[in-house]
Design brief:
The structure is a single chain. By secondary structure, this protein is α/β, with parallel strands linked by helices. The chain folds into 3 domains: about 60 residues, Archaeosine Trna-guanine Transglycosylase, Chain: A, domain 4, CATH 2.30.130.10; about 110 residues, RNA methyltransferase domain (HRMD) like (Transcription Regulator spoIIAA); about 190 residues, Vaccinia Virus protein VP39 (Rossmann fold), CATH 3.40.50.150. It is built from 10 helices and 20 strands. Strand 14, helix 6 and strand 15 form a beta-alpha-beta unit. Helix 5 runs parallel beside helix 6. The protein binds S-adenosyl-L-homocysteine (SAH). The site of S-adenosyl-L-homocysteine has 20 residues, from helix 6, strand 15 and helix 8.
């Protein structure tokens, strides 16, 4: 089975970018099944890559390898080993027992995400290619980690673009019967792999949660979009005078409250507010509330660049309100995890928010996703989480 590209459309593959869009394809030889491995050739007949075919997606194939090597169980074993070796090199286990083992394209395994929560692996398969190899990958992951339980959370909406139905449940070993306790930088969290967001926890924010701990002492803090309280716990552990945690999800907030007790953090300095942050921020503004540290970690407003404009308005709105709610010398820690909004655009949006709020502010730090969510230099799309630490003048 082969894909032959249109003349001149091989340049991104020569730069080792792993996506082949439908518009770049001249013809397909044979009738590959979804997820089947195909050889990719230039119009001139040059071998370019070996890729997983995905008939339903605009990204018609995703590259497994740019070399002329077999794509088989041994190939996947090598890729998994390489990903595990990178995590070992980073000494991630010195700060946590919960981290990302496989970060899809950036670990040479398009469509595959694997997170580890203590002794449980959670797998997310997002493309036809990872789906076709799922049973093999599941076995290899257990063999290479020495663990016995693998749970699947392939219920992300993007699977529909690949023509795949949602799938969730135990893949290997029994399903977890209780929440999993993880430790991150000395704080304990409960993770619900079956019902939590993504695979259960926002592992990508680990270093940024730790950073917030060092900025919180004596400050009145607002944790916007708090989920189960990652930034909240760190602010309190860092000596915050008070923290208000806001989220729209009652389940997430219940865990947040629980996490305070679990970590013996002072509940008398903590307030939980269930609601829509867009409304809550306006209410605070109307009531004249002020804060010294505001964290904004919203969900993905723009999964792709098609939604960028609407998302930009939403980001600007919350950041503008946050600038208004900050006291002079107050700190804004603001994030975007939208693939459709890059770091430069996000900075422009935050700058426009400060301008419209009538405040001077400085960027003092750029924040990024955790090191166990690497970005292949050939695949800049892998850099999805960006954050700014700003000080209001
Ligand atoms: N900072 C968190 C992760 C935040 S994820 C951590 O470190 O763990 C984004 C959160 O935003 C989710 O918990 C989701 O429930 C919440 N959310 C989404 N839309 C919202 C809205 N309009 N108002 C308040 N919370 C919202």
């Amino acid at each position: 089975m082969r894909i032959v590209l249109k003349p001149g459309r091989e340049s991104s593959l020569l730069r080792r970018h792993p996506w082949i869009f439908s518009g770049a394809i001249q013809r397909i030889e044979g009738q590959p099944a979804p997820g089947q491995t195909v050889d990719v050739f230039s119009a001139e007949g040059q071998f370019l890559a070996r890729a997983a075919y995905s008939p339903h997606s605009q990204i018609r194939a995703r590259v497994w390898t740019f070399d002329d090597e077999p794509v088989d169980a041994q190939f996947f074993r090598n890729r998994i080993r390489a990903a595990l070796a990178r995590r070992a090199l980073l000494r991630i286990e010195s700060s946590t027992n919960a981290y990302r083992l496989i970060h899809a394209e950036s670990d040479g395994l398009p469509g595959l995400i694997v997170d580890r929560y203590a002794d449980l692996l959670v797998l997310q398969s997002l493309t036809a290619g990872s789906e076709a190899w799922k049973p093999t990958l599941a076995d290899l992951l257990l063999e290479e980690t020495g663990l016995a339980r693998l749970y699947e959370r392939s219920d992300a909406e993007v699977r529909a673009l690949e023509g795949l139905p949602p799938a969730a449940g135990p893949l290997r070993g029994p399903a977890p019967t209780a929440l999993i306790t993880i430790i991150e930088h000395g704080l304990r969290y409960l993770v619900d792999p079956a019902h939590g967001h993504k695979t259960g926890f926002y592992l990508d924010q680990r270093p940024n949660r730790a950073r917030v701990r060092t900025l919180a002492e004596g400050r009145e803090v607002l944790d916007g979009f708090c989920y189960t309280g990652g930034f909240t716990l760190n602010a309190l552990a860092g000596g915050a005078a008070s923290v208000i945690s806001v989220d729209a999800s009652a389940d997430a907030l219940a865990l947040c409250r629980h996490h305070l007790a679990l970590n013996r953090l002072p509940a008398d300095r903590h307030t939980i507010l269930e609601g829509n942050l867009f409304h809550v921020l306006r209410k605070f503004r109307d009531q004249g509330c002020q804060f010294d540290l505001i964290i904004l970690d919203p969900p993905k407003f723009a999964p792709t660049s098609a939604q960028a404009e609407r998302a930009a308005r939403a980001y600007k709105d919350i950041n503008l309100l946050a600038f208004k709610l900050l006291r002079p010398d107050g700190i804004l820690v603001t994030f975007s995890c939208s693939g459709g909004i890059d770091a430069a655009l996000f900075q422009k949006i935050v700058a426009a928010a400060a301008l419209d709020a009538g405040v001077d502010a400085q960027i003092v730090e750029h924040l990024f996703q955790a090191a166990d969510h690497p970005v292949s230099l050939a695949f800049p799309e892998g850099a999805y989480l960006k954050g700014l630490v700003c000080i209001k003048g």
